[in-house]
Amino acid sequence: MSDKPISQLVIKRLPIYYRYLGELSEKGIERISSKELAQRMGGTASQIRQDLNNFGEFGQQGYGYNVDYLRSEIGKILGIDREQTIIIIGTGNLGQALANYDFGSVGFKLIGLFDVNPRLYNLVINGVEILPVDSLPEFIAANKVDVATLAVPRSRAKEMAKELEDLGIRAIWNFALTELDVSDRVSVSNMHLDDGLMTLSYNYRQNQDK
Question: What DSSP line would sit under the chain, residue for residue?
């Protein structure tokens, strides 16, 4: 792997490669060239080669890429070759929908659900019981938590993120529609659903004018 910093644009494309390679494997395809992969993904062969070259040599000239091997190596790069744990804070409609996601398909295990609403306590979703949010310190102290998901109202998100950092959490998946005030020790992935919808609206309107 190169010692130079890897562009976040490259990192964001790795899960896409991983997903496409998984689909190819399911179809029984054993090898593929960068050109063929680009045609399926809508990108360019040179971009794929450049992206992958940031992490090593995975293909052979005249042969292309072994699909299962390349997918396995990308999984290692992304850190999903080993099981990681995840919790969800906020189990309203969005939080419950997230709790029903198949985290195992991307190497994660859901181990905790938390909320402030007593009416939700003891409800079990996807095999995990909803606990009071006040029990977070004790839970995190007793369990290895790799990622915390925030599905709380915007008004509570920053305070909750700071508490999570103080409890030792170093990765937050944020659905709270606001930026978080955490130190650079914490990796944050912001999932702004309204941004995606507004972008879709723009592209839809542009296509209507064609």
Answer: --SSPPPHHHHHHHHHHHHHHHHHHHTT--EE-HHHHHHHHTS-HHHHHHHHHTT---EETTTEEEHHHHHHHHHHHHT-SS-EEEEEE--SHHHHHHHTS-GGGGTEEEEEEEES-GGGTT-EETTEEEEEGGGHHHHHHHS---EEEE-S-HHHHHHHHHHHHHTT--EEEE-SSS-----TTSEEEE--HHHHHHHHHHHHHHHHT-
Residue 16 lies in a domain: yes
Residue ending a domain, among 52, 78, 104, is 78
Q: Which domain holds residue 38?
A: 8-78
Q: Are residues 63 and 49 in the same domain?
A: yes
Q: Which of 57, 78, 99 is the last residue of a domain?
A: 78
pTM of the model: 0.83
pLDDT in tens, the chain (210 residues): 555 688 988 998 999 999 999 999 999 999 999 999 999 888 899 999 999 999 988 877 767 899 999 999 999 999 888 899 999 999 999 999 999 999 988 889 999 999 999 999 989 999 999 999 999 999 999 999 999 999 999 999 999 999 999 999 999 999 998 999 999 999 999 988 788 888 888 888 888 876
